[in-house]
Queue: 3 jobs
Job 1
Amino acid sequence: MNAIKNFLEFELLHLGEYSIRVYSLVSILFIFLITKFILWIIQKALYRKEKLNTYEKGNLYALFQIIKYVIWVISIAFMLETIGLKITVLLAGSAALLVGVGLGLQQTFNDMISGIILLSERSIKVGDILTIDDDIVKIEEIGFRTSKGQNRDEISIIIPNSLITTSKVINWSHQTRRTRFKINVGVAYGSNVDLVMKILNESAVAHPEVKKNELIDVRFLDFGPSSLDFQLLFYSENIFRIEKVKSDIRKIINQKFLENKIEIPFTQMDLHLKTNHTDLFKKIN
C-alpha cells in the first residue's frame, strides 16, 4: 500500500505554488472517463426509441449537444480544480489576455454564440434542407462553431454558424415535409389549350414522387412572344432530389406532347435587310 501511495504522490512537475502529481493525472483521467460514460448514458436514454422521425431526431440532437457542452464545461472545471487551479483566480488573472484573444477571435466567438442559438432555438435541425448562397444543402451536423452539410453534388459543405443566423436562409423543411414546386413549359400557338393542361396534369400524376392527394394545379400563364406559356404546380416530399423529379416529369411531358403532336416552339426572329438602291445601281454600272 505504501508503494502505491508513494507512486500516486510522486511529483511530476512543480511550478511555484502548484505541483502536478501522479494522482492528479489519475484523477483527470477518471473524470474524463466518467464524463464520457455519463454522456453515453444520456445519449442512449434520449435515443431509446427504435423509430424516430426526422423532426424528433433533430430536436434530440440539439438537446444532446447542449447537454454535452454543459457537462464538458463542468468536467473541465473539475479537472482544473484537481491540479490546484482555481477557475475564478485563473479568469481574473488572465482578464487582459482574454480581452486580447476575444478581439482577435471575434468571428470565432460569433460562430460559437450562433451555434448555441441554433441548438437552443431549433429553427434549424439536423436533416433540414436549406438554401444557402444559392446552394441547396442538407444539414448533417450542427457543431459548436460550424455546421456540416451535403449539397446535391454529394460535396460536403462546412458552414460557419454565424452565416446561418445572420443571412437570409430558406428552410425547405421548417413547416412541412412536403413542398410545392413548379415546371414552366411553352407550346406553339394554335395548340389545344385544354389538351395541353390535361397532359401536364397527367404527367405529374404519373410520377411516383408527386403527392397524389395534394392539389396538382395547371395554369395558363400568358401569351408569350413565340409560345403559349403554362405552369405545372405539384407537391413532393423529395425536396433534396427535386431536380431529378422535375427532369422525369419533363420527360413524361415531352413524350405525351409527341404522341399528341403538340409542338414546343423555339424562339424565332425575323431579320429585315435594307439596301441603298442608288449605291447598288452605281456599283452595277
Note: The mean pLDDT is 78.
Job 2
Amino acid sequence: MFNVVLYQPEIPANTGNIGRTCVVTGARLHLIGPLGFSLDHKTVHRAGLGYWENLDVCTYEGWEDFLRQNELARDDERLHLLTKKARRTYAQSSYRDGDYLVFGSESNGIPEELLACSPERCERIPMLPDEASLANAEAWEAHEQALGHSEPDHEAILQQDICGNFIDPTSYRISALNLSNSAAIVLYEALRQTDFPGM
C-alpha cells in the first residue's frame, strides 16, 4: 500500500479528488495540519463522492507529529518529497510498497527547510516552460504585477539553496499542474513500478 501525504492542503476539492484516487488504488491518505478547511466541509465530500466513507485517512498536527506516528526519520528512504525544486524527476525514482509520496500546499509547496533536510528525497514532475505551454504567459505576468506581486527574488532563493538540490530558480514557472493531478501522476507511476493489477 502506498501513502499519499498532503502537507497543509488548502483547497478542499483537491483533497477530495486525491481521496477518491486513494480509495480506488488502495492507498492511504495522510493530512498534515493545519488544514485550510474542515474535513466536514461539503466540498471535500462532494469531490470525494461516495468514496470518502471508504477512505483510509490519517490526520496530524504537524510534520514532526507525522514523522513520529509513522516512525519515519527526516531523511527516511521511504519519503518522496515532490517539489519543483529538484533535479531528479519522479520517473527516475524507484518506488516500493509502503513509500510515502509527499505533496506540499497549493500555494507554498513543501517548506524549503524540510527539503533542505532531505535533498536526496526531492523529486519533481517535468513541465514545459511557460512560453511553450501558455500562449498568454505575458498576460499572467502582467496580471501578477497588477496585483502587486513582484518577481521572485532569485538571489534570495539561491542563497537558501544550501543542499545543492534545487533547480535553477530562473526556470520557475507560472503554469503548473494542480495538486490532485500531481498526486495522481506520481501515484500511478509508483503503482506501475510495483505491478499494480491491470497496469
Note: Residues 3-127+176-193 form a domain with the Alpha/beta knot fold (CATH 3.40.1280.10).
Job 3
Amino acid sequence: MDVILIPGFWLDASSWQAVTPALDQAGHRPHPVTLPGLESVDADRTGIGLADHVDAVVRQVEALPGPVALVGHSGGGAIAQGVADRLPERIARVVFVDAGPVADGDCVNDELPVVGDEIPLPDWSVFEDADLTDLDDELRSRFRERAVPEPARVASDPLRLSNDRRHDVPVTIIACEFPSSLIGEWLAAGKPWVRELAQAKHVDYLDLPTGHWPQFTRPAELGRALVEALAR
C-alpha cells in the first residue's frame, strides 16, 4: 500500500529515514513528506497556514493510484485528519503517532513561542518530561541540528472539517508518551480533547512506550508498529 508519512513540527521527510525500512520490507510504498515552508531553514514561511499543509498532502494522495494510508506524527495528525475529511473515499486508514484527530475549529498548539512568521524549535524546558523520555543528549543534539522552524500559522490556524464520512475511515492510535488506557479513560469521561476521536467508528490502539519522538528514540519499533497497524 502507498503510505504517506506526515512529520510533526520542525521536521521534514528525512525524519522518517530510520522508520521506512520496516514498511519497505513489508511490501508497502512509503512516501515521506516535506511540507511547505519546511524545505530548509532559509525557506520562506510567510503566510503558510494549516490549510496549505493539508492541500499539499491532498495533492500527494490524488497523485497516487488506489487507496492510501496516512501516518501523522504529532501536529501531522491534524493534517492527516484534514486530508481524511477532504478525501475519505481514498484513505484506507489513518495512523496517529503520539497524536489524535483534531476536531473542527481546534488548532494544533497556539501556545508555542512565535518569532515573526515562524516557530523555531524551543528550548527543551518548554516540553513536558514525558515528551522527552528516551530523547538523550545525543538525540536532542541531532534533532536540533536538523530542525526547521515551523510556519507559525500551522500551529494556530483552526482546522476546518465538514465531511462526516471522515468518521468511517479506520483509525489507529500509536500511544507513546501516555498509555492507550488513559485515552480510554478520557473517552469515557467525555473529555473535550478527544471529542473527534469519539466519533470515529473504527479505532484501535498500539502502545509504544517512549517519548513524543519515537522516530528518533525507537525508530525500528515504530516501523514495526506501523506495519502492524496497516495489517489490521
Note: The domain at 2-231 is CATH 3.40.50.1820 (Rossmann fold).
